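User: Here's a structure from my thesis project, written as structure tokens. My advisor, Dr. K., wants to see whether a designed sequence matches the one we expressed. Can you design one independently, without my sequence as a hint?
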């Protein structure tokens, strides 16, 4: 199976959906904030490993605590994935901190500030 085959793409999407559901509703770790989302998932073609890109909105300390909490819950998450998905192998999950959403929010704020200054400059 090629890395970007249709089957692998479907598996990635299904694992991402299930991971998001598990993180949102089943993990009770207080270190994981409500604003935690699964941005992307890359499951290896042999279904042995999986990289889950996680985005956390908050301070750097909250982000590090969230990743620690998720790494602590890896066994539970893998067990839930095995229960919810019918895959030949349940992948070993590695959580990676992704900051693209926060970067996008910050860029959007900066663009709004510049547009506001530009509008004020034209009015004067």
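Assistant: Designed independently from the structure alone:
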């Amino acid at each position: 199976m090629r890395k970007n085959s249709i089957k692998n793409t479907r598996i990635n999407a299904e694992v991402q959906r299930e991971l998001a559901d598990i993180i949102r509703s089943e993990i009770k770790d207080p270190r994981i904030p409500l604003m935690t989302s699964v941005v992307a998932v890359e499951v290896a073609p042999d279904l042995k490993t999986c990289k889950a890109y996680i985005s956390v909105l908050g301070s750097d300390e909250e982000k590090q605590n969230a990743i620690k909490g998720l790494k602590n819950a890896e066994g539970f998450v893998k067990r839930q994935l095995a229960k919810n998905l019918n895959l030949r192998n349940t992948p070993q999950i590695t959580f990676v901190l992704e900051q693209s959403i926060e970067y996008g929010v910050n860029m959007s704020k900066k663009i709004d500030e510049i547009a506001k200054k530009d509008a004020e400059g034209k009015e004067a």
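When you compare it with your expressed construct, this may help: Residues 3 and 45 are 6 Å apart (CA to CA).
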